[in-house]
Design brief:
homodimer; 216 residues; alpha/beta; Rossmann fold; seven-stranded mixed β-sheet; two-stranded parallel sheet; 35% helix; 15% strand
Chain lengths: 216, 216
């Protein structure tokens, strides 16, 4: 069996959940290398549900787990049912869901807090030396949890500044590359913080997975 | 500008809409080769909305266009607003949405009919010699519309038999390959009719796009 990845979803669609192209790009890159993927998500309501044509918030409540199950093809576990010790690494694709449902960075910026179940998983992973990969805006989560880590969200100055205010370090990175913090075992890639389309997202995801593999 | 693709979505998630891994795999393959992608979908209610954990039908009506917009990152046109003449090819990813919302094959099998807007687009494309690519179960749509075409859905005997009853020919195909009907300019690949994971879907999508490119 391949190395076991806990793949953390935050819904389905970048305006209120997981960015779909990022998730699938990472999945292809991981599956191509024989990783054994387990989808997980918090079993709670989404913070918002968006109309993707108008950007309006809908008067409708969707569940993070059920929407994430669309990307997971129905095979997804609740975050509170898994333990980091059963996995070799954790991967977090981006999308606003990462900053709305996994933490509240989209609302509170540098004063954000991380969902307790997400925090538990990532703290246990990090304390046990297990690598963490994060794409797009999701690097704000390890930045919030682990002072001193180095991450990238591409080159957006405002977001980079908030990351530094949280006590992490930001390093600029092109879309087709990834930043590796070897000491803290965290790999991040800009994805749609910079990407102009799915091919660029995919190239960055492949680089992230290559770097994660080196840490295992 | 690259060759222009009309990329037809049927929702978001394989149990009631577009299969997400298939759509993104095709998008990466197309974008990597410089194709210019326009997302389109019929502006109508989904036939069903599924709970992806339990497979139950939900008492909830979602719109094909709005859910497709999740894969399209908000940039999607209604099918009735486009003309085949403005595109160089048409691509249809699979998922039950293709057999529930773009046609009713999932309900009526070989007696299915195709959504009139989908039919118009595909007939205009075919009459003007524009290639059509289809993945997974979506090949039943050209099989229904165009007697004598050769397609694959992998090797599922029951579905292959229905395709032949509709007057098309079925050819078995491994997951990492595609079947090209050169005369009718139709390329099909099995995707999740056979695939065990996203890497196999992606390899088939790359083959489909390579074959489509040869026809242009």
């Amino acid at each position: 069996m391949g190395k076991r990845v806990a793949f953390v979803l935050s819904g389905c669609g970048h305006k209120d959940g997981t960015e779909i192209h990022e998730a699938v790009s990472a999945l292809i890159a991981l599956d191509s290398k024989g990783f054994d993927i387990t989808f997980v998500a918090p079993d709670k309501d989404q913070t918002v549900t968006k109309n993707f044509l108008t950007d309006e918030s809908l008067d409708e409540t969707r569940k993070v787990l059920l929407e994430g199950a669309r990307i997971a093809r129905g095979d997804i576990k609740t975050l509170d049912s898994i333990k980091a010790e059963d996995y070799d690494l954790v991967v977090l694709p981006g999308g606003f869901g990462a900053a709305l449902n996994l933490c509240d960075f989209a609302i509170k910026g540098e004063n954000c807090t991380v969902d307790p179940e997400v925090r538990n998983l990532l703290e246990e992973a990090k304390n046990n030396g297990k690598p963490i990969g994060a794409m797009c805006i999701a690097p704000v989560i390890p930045a919030r949890l682990f002072p001193g880590v180095t991450v990238t969200i591409g080159n957006d100055a405002a977001t980079a500044s908030k990351i530094e205010q949280m006590g992490a370090r930001h390093r600029s990175c092109p879309v087709d590359d990834a930043v590796t913090d070897e000491q803290n075992r965290i790999v991040t890639t800009p994805a749609y913080m910079l990407a102009r389309g799915p091919a660029e997202v995919y190239n960055g995801a492949v680089r992230m997975v290559e770097e994660l593999e080196k840490l295992l």
